[in-house]
Amino acid sequence: MMKKLVAGICLLWLCLSQGTAQGAEDCIKTINQGAATVPLGAFTQQCATISWTAGMITSDVTYNCCGASPTIRVNASDWEQLRKAGKLDGFRYQVITSSDNGYTLTFRKMQGTNPTTIAGEDFFK
Q1: Structural domain boundaries of the chain?
Q2: Inter-residue contact 48 to 67 (CB < 8 Å)
Q3: Whole-angstrom Cα distance, residue 80 to residue 73?
Q4: 85: exposed, middle or buried (C-beta count within 10 Å: 0-12, 13-18, 19+)?
Q5: For 59-81, b where at least 16 C-beta lie within 10 A, e where not — what string?
Q6: What is the pTM of this model?
């Protein structure tokens, strides 16, 4: 009886100290890194880049590391054909556009044949 009580207390302590579930915010990470490597990191990191602060030497970069997200390049004709056929429904992706002012990161999710904008924190939901 005493062993069961001790085992139960140990199990309760483990659950309370470790948590029973980790929230999504645990995998949203901000890392300070060299400013020159930030744009390249948007294409090479396994985590999806959500945002970064402008800095001359270093930048704070926020990543969504709730899952892996490889960088791929898709033929535009193939994309349009699949999109019009509705075969991309539910597909989540990130669009990175550049201009003279820097880079813009947009997270999208296909709903039927139409892209919708989603928050970077919702990329893996």
Answers
A1: 22-122
A2: no
A3: 14
A4: exposed
A5: bebbbbbbeebeeeeeeeeeeee
A6: 0.66
Q: What is the DSSP letter of 12?
A: H
Task: Going from the first residue of the chain to its last (125 residues), give the mean pLDDT of each consecutive group of 10, the final group possibly shorter.
Answer: 39 35 68 77 80 81 88 92 96 87 88 96 90
**For residue 4, what are the contacts with CB-CB under 8 A and spacing of at least 6?**
none
- Phi, psi (deg, nearest 5) at residue 36: -70, -20
Q: Environment class of residue 31 by beta-carbon count within 10 Å: exposed (0-12), middle (13-18) or buried (19+)?
A: middle
